[in-house]
Structure to design on (655 residues):
């Protein structure tokens, strides 16, 4: 599948001396990594070549408090406000469609692309954000780029790229109760390591992938970068097509039929070969949680923190986390719970957290923040009454954005506090200087919110 | 971009593995719209205490680190976020090369586009360099070699086109813009 998409997008094939000139079908931009690229266009007197293939949103720096978006209250952080204003000016000047702060289609860039139908099978999609791998769930070749490359796409709609190697990850069997797509990708990262995918495009295959809905597939592809892979892909199938059909930017009528015909030819051929392959048994997977300072430091929620004698880097990570080698992770007190992000901020994620929280109260002393991935997700969740379940349980219900995953908008965790988070990175200081992040699924986060400590969600499912 | 041929400097060593771009430059410093002046915030949370004063034991704060242009780090340097602010901060601080046994993809690509040289070495060389902080190294881009103080020369891989661009100060955007005819022809034939 990767090879087919790659070859269809080669404007100039690669040679021993020069990389390929690769055509980019869709370019998503946001306020943080685009300003320097717009500056390059201005400095060189260049036009933005294809505004029609470019879509902008505001997510990283945007406030999640309603009054700062809709109520006329100024954005609390001045530098965030000026970065947002800069994107508004840049989009106006270069003719780029912007899902602006008050727009009801705004949201996290990797949530709105699919929601809009901007993301489609067989396309090349880039964004100045490493979680662009999310869009690979549709059988697209999607990867994160830096700001200089954002400028290249602005000016030429192309990138210079060497062809990466391919890595097939097959997951057979089926996932047990309480085991989600998040647990699956955390298990994969634990298995291959956080550098295990470097230089590869991952293709996720097997019965478990076929059984997942689109939102769950996006959770899996989203964290491909946490294994070092720039891209992760899942072949499109009927699940993909039924998700896409009603979307505003998906093809309609005769164009839909033509697209479908193309898309059906995308999946890898039966005899396709990969540079590397591994196989996992999905039936053996459990709810997972991280205990260290990168997503590869992960164990079952029911497990204990490993002991690696004489590994100073490992010890340093545990010291930062304030955790002890050999101790069980279950029962570890937490004071912050974050449900949201481009990994787990979709409607199905909110549904699963709400299902667990229904009829429960969040433990005393725990602050829980629920941040929908987009305004559309927010609207759909409110239509189902999920917001009322969260609020009744004692959680805060916010406007959409990246929020506490990256803490750029002021939604942060205090130094030394433990946060159980459905986001994608538990790096030192990711959620705020000194913050201690435990990554888990929305189910595990919700169960832990109720008990005020790390809790296996299966304890709730069993009644 | 200025042509880059040789780099000679003593090294600063950060032995941690998997140093991610959130450590290189924390996200709260990304609320900027330019690429300038980020060196001050390089490794901010490792380099400064909560009150903003330098932590004396951190490698970049040692008197011997002053003026060093080569950073040696543990395996898988630059993983995580795609922020180009990471190489911008390293360059603004004064680094010209980063040496590790593994360098993350997006960070490598971003570095090359800004004239920061990613040098990937074998395990034995990597370990030796980690064990000998502050030694004087010389890196020659033309021959893709790292010259150690004992006279050993270690070759490192570097994609040919990237090397050509660094050596000649060629800007990739100019190269892409020159492909306009082919890009236009592709767009004529493309269906998506």
């Amino acid at each position: 599948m990767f090879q087919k998409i790659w070859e269809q997008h080669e404007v100039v094939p690669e040679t021993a001396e020069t990389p390929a000139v690769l055509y980019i079908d869709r370019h998503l931009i946001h306020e943080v990594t685009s300003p320097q690229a717009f500056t390059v266009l201005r400095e060189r007197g260049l036009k933005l070549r294809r505004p029609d293939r470019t879509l902008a949103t505001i997510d990283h720096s945007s406030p999640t408090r309603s009054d700062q978006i809709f109520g006329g209250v100024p954005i609390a952080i001045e530098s965030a406000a000026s970065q947002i204003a800069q994107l508004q000016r840049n989009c106006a000047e270069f003719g780029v469609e912007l899902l602006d702060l008050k727009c009801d289609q705004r949201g996290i860039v990797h949530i709105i692309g699919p929601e809009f139908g901007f993301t489609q099978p067989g396309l090349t999609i880039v964004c100045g954000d490493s979680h662009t791998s999310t869009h690979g769930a549709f059988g697209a070749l999607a990867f994160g780029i830096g700001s200089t490359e954002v400028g290249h796409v602005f000016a030429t709609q192309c990138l210079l790229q060497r062809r990466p190697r391919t890595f097939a990850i097959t997951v057979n069997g089926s996932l047990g109760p309480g085991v989600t797509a998040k647990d699956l990708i955390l298990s994969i990262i634990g298995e291959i390591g956080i550098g295990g995918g470097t230089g590869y495009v991952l293709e996720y295959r097997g019965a478990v992938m076929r059984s997942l809905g689109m939102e769950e597939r996006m959770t899996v592809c989203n964290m491909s970068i946490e294994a070092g892979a720039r891209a992760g892909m899942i072949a499109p199938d009927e699940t993909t097509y039924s998700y896409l059909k009603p979307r505003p930017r998906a093809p309609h009528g005769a164009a839909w039929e033509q697209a479908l015909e193309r898309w059906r030819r995308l999946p890898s051929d039966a005899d396709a070969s990969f540079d590397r392959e591994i196989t996992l048994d999905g039936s053996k997977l459990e709810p997972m949680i991280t205990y260290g300072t990168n997503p590869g430091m992960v164990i079952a929620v029911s497990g204990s923190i490993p002991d690696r004698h004489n590994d100073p880097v490992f010890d340093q990570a545990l010291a930062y986390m304030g955790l002890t080698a050999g101790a069980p992770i279950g029962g570890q007190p937490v004071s912050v719970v974050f449900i949201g992000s481009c990994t787990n901020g979709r409607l199905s994620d909110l549904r699963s957290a709400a299902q667990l929280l229904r009829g429960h109260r969040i433990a005393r002393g725990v602050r829980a923040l629920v941040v929908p991935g987009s305004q559309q997700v927010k609207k759909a969740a409110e239509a189902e009454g999920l917001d009322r379940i969260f609020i009744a349980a004692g959680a805060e219900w916010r406007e959409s954005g990246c929020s506490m995953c990256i803490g750029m908008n002021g939604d942060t965790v205090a130094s030394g506090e433990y946060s159980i988070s459905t986001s994608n990175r538990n790096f030192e200081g990711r959620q705020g200087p000194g913050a201690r992040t435990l990554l888990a699924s929305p189910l595990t986060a919700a169960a832990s919110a109720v008990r005020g400590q790390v809790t296996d969600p299966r304890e709730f499912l069993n009644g | 971009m200025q042509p880059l041929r040789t780099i000679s400097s003593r090294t600063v060593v950060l032995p941690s593995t998997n140093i991610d771009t959130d450590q290189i430059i924390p996200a709260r410093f990304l609320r900027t719209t330019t690429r300038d002046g980020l060196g001050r915030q390089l490794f901010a949370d490792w380099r400064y205490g909560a009150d903003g004063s330098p932590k004396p034991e951190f490698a970049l704060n040692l008197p011997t680190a002053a003026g060093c242009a080569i950073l040696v780090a543990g395996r898988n340097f630059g993983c995580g976020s795609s922020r180009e602010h990471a190489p911008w901060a390293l360059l603004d601080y004064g680094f010209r090369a980063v040496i590790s046994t593994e360098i993350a993809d997006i960070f490598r690509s971003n570095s090359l586009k800004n004239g920061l040289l990613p040098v990937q070495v074998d395990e034995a060389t990597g370990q030796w360099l980690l064990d000998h902080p502050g030694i004087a190294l010389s890196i020659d881009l033309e021959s893709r070699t790292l010259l150690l103080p004992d006279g050993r020369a270690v070759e490192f891989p570097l994609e040919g086109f990237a090397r050509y661009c660094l050596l000649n100060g060629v800007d990739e955007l100019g190269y892409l813009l020159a492909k306009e005819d082919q890009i236009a022809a592709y767009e004529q034939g493309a269906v998506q």
Notes: Residues 35 and 87 of chain A are 7 Å apart (CA to CA). Chain A has a mean pLDDT of 96. Chain A has three domains: 2-161, 165-235+262-284, 288-461. The longest helix of chain A spans residues 78-94.
